[in-house]
Amino acid sequence: MMAGSGLRFLVLILAVAICGAASVFQPISDSHRSAAVDVFLPVDGSYKSLGEAYEALKTLEILGIDKKSDLSSATCENVVKVLGSSSSTLKDAFYALSVNGILKCKTGEAVLLKDIVSQLQAGVKGAKSLLDFYYSVRGLVLVKEQFPGTVLSIGDAEAVFRSIKTLSQTDGRWRYSSNNPESSTFAAGLAFETLAGVISLAPSEIDQSLIQTLKTGILKLFDGIQKYDDGTFYFDEKSVDASQGPISTTASVIKGITSFAASESTGLNLPGDKIVGLAKFLLGVGIPGDAKDFFNQIDALACLEDNRFSVPLILSLPSTVISLSKKEPLKVKVSTVLGSTAPALSVKLAQAISSRTKDSSVINNQELKFDADSATYFLDSFPKNFDVGKYTFIFEIVLDDSANEKVYITEAQTKVPIAATGVISIENAEIAVLDSDIGSVESQKKLDLTKDGAVALSANHLQKLRLSFQLTSPLGHVFKPHQAFFKLKHESQVEHIFLVKTSAKKSELVLDFLGLVEKLYYLSGKYEIQLTIGDASMENSLLSNIGHIELDLPERPEKAPRPPVQSTEPLSRYGPKAEISHIFRIPEKLPAKQLSLVFLGLIVLPFIGFLIGLTQLGANIKSFPSSAGSAIPALLFHVGIAAVLLLYVLFWWKLDLFTTLKGVSLLGVFLLFVGHRTLSQLAAASNKLKSA
Amino acid sequence: MVKSTTKDAQDLFHSLRSTYVATPTNLKIIDLYVCFAVFTALIQVAYMALVGSFPFNSFLSGVLSCIGTAVLAVCLRIQVNKENKEFKDLAPERAFADFVLCNLVLHLVIINFLG
């Protein structure tokens, strides 16, 4: 049995490894648009910064949502202010131009185009970091787009190209500046956009060899792409504390390569499955909660929607459930990532693999019909052996290559998990009470499980209860449900649940009351019977009250467990629980207070004895120096020692060791000086006496 | 025999006493200090014997403070005693300074251990 289960496990692992994960990706839809309105339209009517304004307006523009006019006017005022002032930074000028490109503000005389152009050109010349190059070069590109006819030049384009190129690294990533050794994938995306801008501003000046090295750099960056099991590809920063997450990094790279590929002179060949994988990653995010992630997702998808090297097409299903009883067709949609219509193509269902059989396919190479009104493909006929259960459908898309302007690309095979549901017929349902030894039937009742019944049975502890029924799928196979529960509920609300097992022929439960007496807590009386049958593939799952049974069980012996107390209020389990009484360590027995006080007095006695002895010996302080010069150090010496002892008392009372050590060190230094002074004076005095 | 031993003990005692009277006053003061310290230690031990050693660290701290200071006083006495040829060159003030410093360090540790 162990070998059998082990073999099945191995087969399952192999099957999963071969099949890979199946999942459904949906293109951008109206739910995205309504979420965008919530995220991007500010409540108080204005945006906090031009950067935020640009992100919000660009996203709303791509999604086709109308902006409010008062919002536009407030933002336009800000744009004109920034473009008109000569002290605005490169970043502000760049974002102001970007917003202007969307809103098309009327700039008027306040904004002198010459000043902006000269500011940006100065920015290009004096740029020290990648971001400086990015804002100034892209700013010039935006000026060229928005004000056609303006004469502007980027200076020595080749020199600018080369100086940006110095920031690249061999593994495909880029650095932000020559001082900073950290490299990042996000910076690579910015660099590609900047270089694409340089090429578009001075197309004839850049050498082909430089562009070629850049292309190899892009391919090297793609070597470092990461992937998930469901076929999505993404870029992420390698360092742990990177400021950019996978969404913004992936979006930055996509924007970079699409703007680079948009330059006429370049021809970029990127692996198609990775482009589709990147599109699936961005779609798989769903609706982001963060404004920046939302903008990055939509902006990157807009770049993928309309680019020169390959436009990914996404296959999606509005519903992944086939109902065999309703006989509705299975609908499939193919669209671009933003939901626009796809070109002429045909969709084929290559295989439909059941989760039970796994090696043979139920459907093979079925072409889907196309409905032009709703632009969906559908499959309306299923083969005769298509039963309920879980399937993996493998779709293939074949493009009609007739005169497409753009190059479209799809996945080789799209795996989709499909659930087929149907009505399960329930037959031969019956409940019987049997005599245990002989197995003869005492009473037997037929059941109609589709409605509640009022069966009345009675049994004692020497008998058995048998429930049996047959579940059949629409094709006539024996159906094994996920859930088949048989519940017995006593009058005192005590419940017991048993599982109904399904074998190859039927589902059956036999309750032998002799063995169950202890489990039922020896409670005799009336038990309500309830049967629940449910499954994901079953459209007519049921919960039926069959009736009741009178059970006659023996008396409870002394040692038997009592049934748990059932509270009448069902929500009482959420009420306060019993208080926990903690057991603490028993404190040590301390001596009586009076005893301690007596000994405190006794301790003082030797000290008094010491003082008395001193007076008897005739100890005196005659040699305490009298002159002022010697008396002060001597006095300070005694004061210092008293201070240290006082500090010790304070330490015991409330201070900690570190404060005390600090104080002791200070007082110690003081004592050192003063003590040395006093004692050397005393020594000199005694030497004088000796010699004299 | 017994009589001679008691007479010897008495004689010994008398000779010790007469010699002791001749010692200088400062040494007598130090001796008195040592006796005071030892007596204090003995009272603490008696208290512990009576009530048990529950905060054992406090007991150790108290007893060792007394014994420690007694030991330091004995060292001082050795160094200050003029009859001691070893420490002839050491000034008694230097010995006293050492005594004060060592006592202060000892009492810092004791107070920390007292708890």
TrEMBL record, chain A:
Q: How does it sit in the membrane?
A: Multi-pass membrane protein
Task: Identify the metabolic or biological route this protein is part of.
Answer: Protein modification; protein glycosylation
Q: Where is the Ribophorin II N-terminal domain?
A: 28-305
TM ranges: 595-619, 631-651, 657-674
Fetch the PANTHER family from UniProt: DOLICHYL-DIPHOSPHOOLIGOSACCHARIDE--PROTEIN GLYCOSYLTRANSFERASE SUBUNIT 2 (PTHR12640:SF0), RIBOPHORIN II (PTHR12640)
Oligomeric form and interacting partners: Component of the oligosaccharyltransferase (OST) complex.
Ribophorin II third domain span: 427-551
The signal peptide annotation in the UniProt record is 1-21
User: Domain Ribophorin II C-terminal: where?
Assistant: 584-684
List, for all copies, the residue spans of the domain called Ribophorin II second: 313-419
UniProt key word RNA-binding? no
Keyword annotations: Endoplasmic reticulum, Membrane, Signal, Transmembrane, Transmembrane helix
The name this protein goes by in its record: Dolichyl-diphosphooligosaccharide--protein glycosyltransferase subunit 2
Domain of life from the UniProt record: Eukaryota
The similarity comment for this entry is: Belongs to the SWP1 family.
Give its localization: Endoplasmic reticulum membrane
User: What is known about what this protein does?
Assistant: Subunit of the oligosaccharyl transferase (OST) complex that catalyzes the initial transfer of a defined glycan (Glc(3)Man(9)GlcNAc(2) in eukaryotes) from the lipid carrier dolichol-pyrophosphate to an asparagine residue within an Asn-X-Ser/Thr consensus motif in nascent polypeptide chains, the first step in protein N-glycosylation. N-glycosylation occurs cotranslationally and the complex associates with the Sec61 complex at the channel-forming translocon complex that mediates protein translocation across the endoplasmic reticulum (ER). All subunits are required for a maximal enzyme activity.
Q: Which Pfam families does the record associate with it?
A: Ribophorin_II (PF05817), Ribophorin_II_2nd (PF23861), Ribophorin_II_3rd (PF23860), Ribophorin_II_C (PF25147)
TrEMBL record, chain B:
Keyword terms, alphabetized: Apoptosis, Endoplasmic reticulum, Membrane, Transmembrane, Transmembrane helix
The UniProt function text for this chain reads:
Subunit of the oligosaccharyl transferase (OST) complex that catalyzes the initial transfer of a defined glycan (Glc(3)Man(9)GlcNAc(2) in eukaryotes) from the lipid carrier dolichol-pyrophosphate to an asparagine residue within an Asn-X-Ser/Thr consensus motif in nascent polypeptide chains, the first step in protein N-glycosylation. N-glycosylation occurs cotranslationally and the complex associates with the Sec61 complex at the channel-forming translocon complex that mediates protein translocation across the endoplasmic reticulum (ER). All subunits are required for a maximal enzyme activity.
Spans traversing the lipid bilayer: 30-50, 56-76, 96-114
Q: Which family does it belong to?
A: Belongs to the DAD/OST2 family.
What are the leading ranks of the lineage?
Eukaryota, Viridiplantae, Streptophyta, Embryophyta, Tracheophyta
| Cell compartments where the protein resides | Endoplasmic reticulum membrane
Q: How does it assemble?
A: Component of the oligosaccharyltransferase (OST) complex.
Where is it mainly found?
endoplasmic reticulum
Protein name per Swiss-Prot or TrEMBL: Dolichyl-diphosphooligosaccharide--protein glycosyltransferase subunit DAD1
Gene that specifies this protein: LOC104792310
Membrane topology per record? Multi-pass membrane protein
Q: Where along the sequence do coiled-coil regions lie?
A: none
